């Protein structure tokens, strides 16, 4: 297992959920952390204090990953503070909740805004950190957070599923292009327990979807933020020989891909 104590990690979208859990877990491993948010400053500062309590040095950065200048500025701030960036977790994401059969519920602007955050954002972040990682003797590691929507086509909307499929494919391309100094892998969570999905689906549909996913998962469970964070950190800590891989984190749910019945 790789020793990452003293490494610098940027975790996008880390004010809550999977990003916050990943930041805390990396802090517990001795990393210095860049907490990134686009809207939730108070929540980001709370996560920063939690990481500091674990012994980490922390930098809180407001940046929209869809904006290239803001991506580059965030990386520059980390470099100015610590002189290095060793780890990038591309966790920031967005969606529009829309039933897949409701084709008029999505338009070009929806696709473009979702792709801007879910695909272009990770590309811009990787491009911003790549020169520093390439020059470092220890190289660097990137983990992209996609979704089982990328491989099943089941998710919050067609646009979201398509964007996560694109993110998986981009990870393959960049893992090939940026080796051997940079490893790039992807985590694909299924249903994740938490406020994000509850707010997007509404409490009744959230509970129905959670029960449905647990019933059709061979392990009988759904993921939570900490479960996904563990999977992300698995790719960071090792094995060092793995790149261009996709890890599905859903209790085996994808093996029985039965969509929730239309209402």
Q: So what's the overall shape?
A: globular
Uncertain stretches: none
How many H/I helical runs?
A: 9
Evaluate the radius of gyration.
18 Å
Query: What assembly state would you assign to the polypeptide chains in this entry?
Result: single chain
Order of helices and strands: EHEHEHEHEHHEHHHE
- CA distance, first residue to last residue: 47 Å
Per the CATH scheme, the topology name is: Rossmann fold
Proportion of residues in β-strands: 5-15%
Strand order of the largest sheet: 3-2-1-4-5-6-7
The first-level CATH class name: Alpha Beta
Strand-helix topology:
Layout: E1 8-11, H1 17-28, E2 32-37, H2 41-53, E3 58-62, H3 68-82, E4 87-90, H4 108-135, E5 140-145, H5 149-152, H6 158-178, E6 182-189, H7 195-201, H8 203-216, H9 225-237, E7 246-249
Parallel strand pairs: 1-2, 1-4, 2-3, 4-5, 5-6, 6-7
Helix pairs in contact: 1-2, 1-9, 3-4, 4-6, 7-8
């Amino acid at each position: 297992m790789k020793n990452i104590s003293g490494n610098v990690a940027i975790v996008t979208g880390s004010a809550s959920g999977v990003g916050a859990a990943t930041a805390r877990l990396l802090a517990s491993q001795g990393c210095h952390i860049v907490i990134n948010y686009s809207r939730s400053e108070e929540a980001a500062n709370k996560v920063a204090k939690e990481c500091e309590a674990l012994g980490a040095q922390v930098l809180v950065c407001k940046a929209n990953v869809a904006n290239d200048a803001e991506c580059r500025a965030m990386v520059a701030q980390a470099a100015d503070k610590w002189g290095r960036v060793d780890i990038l977790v591309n966790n920031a994401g967005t969606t529009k909740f829309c039933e897949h059969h409701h084709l008029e519920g999505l338009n070009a602007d929806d696709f473009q805004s979702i792709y801007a955050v879910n695909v272009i954002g990770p590309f811009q972040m990787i491009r911003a950190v790549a020169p520093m990682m390439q020059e470092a003797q220890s190289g660097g590691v990137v983990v992209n957070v996609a979704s089982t929507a990328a491989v099943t086509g089941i998710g919050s909307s067609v646009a979201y599923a398509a964007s996560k499929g694109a993110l998986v494919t981009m990870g393959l391309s960049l893992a090939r292009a940026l080796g051997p100094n940079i490893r790039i892998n992807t985590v694909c969570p299924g249903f994740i327990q938490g406020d994000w999905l509850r707010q997007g689906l509404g409490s009744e549909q959230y509970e129905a979807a959670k029960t449905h996913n647990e019933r059709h998962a061979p392990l009988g469970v759904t993921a939570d933020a900490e479960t996904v964070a563990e999977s992300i950190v698995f790719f960071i800590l090792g094995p060092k020989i793995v790149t261009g891989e996709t890890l599905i984190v859903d209790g085996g749910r994808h093996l029985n891909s039965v969509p929730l019945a239309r209402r």
